[in-house]
Amino acid sequence: MNLDSILDELRSYRTRMDQAIAALQGTVGVGRAAKAAGTQRRPMSAAARARIGASKKAWWTKQKRNSGAVKKPTLIHTARRKPMSPAARKKLSAQMKARWAERKKAA
Predict the structure, then answer these.
(1) What is the C-alpha separation between 95 and 105, in angstroms, rounded?
(2) For the chain, give me the number of helices (H) and strands (E)?
């Protein structure tokens, strides 16, 4: 083998490698939404992240303190009501049955 044939073979190999690299670079962004130019996010420093975290922690502490303890909702209205008489229960039952019969007939 002479020097010229070796150089030609290396050049063709380099061309194939360049094409392979270009093809691979073209597939890097596939599957992800392409970002618009200049919209790359800047990394946040550890100090900034710590400062923001501390302020958010203080904010949550303040929110919890101002809202008081989480109370279980109580049924105030049912505690004050008198129990329904059987006659009133029958009357309401008849009214509801009549309403449902109307809806069923209309449908």
Answers:
(1) 15
(2) 4, 0
pTM above 0.85, yes or no: no
Mean pLDDT taken over the chain: 83
Token representation of residue 5: 């044939």
What three-state secondary structure class fits 29?
coil
Maximum pairwise Cα distance, the chain = 116
Compute CA 80 distance to the chain's CA centroid, rounded to the nearest angstrom: 43
Q: Which amino acid is at 79?
A: A
Which alpha helices (DSSP H) does 27-45 contain, by range?
none
pLDDT tens digits, one per residue of 44-75: 999 999 999 999 999 999 988 877 655 666 66
Q: Which two tokens mark 106?
A: 């209309």
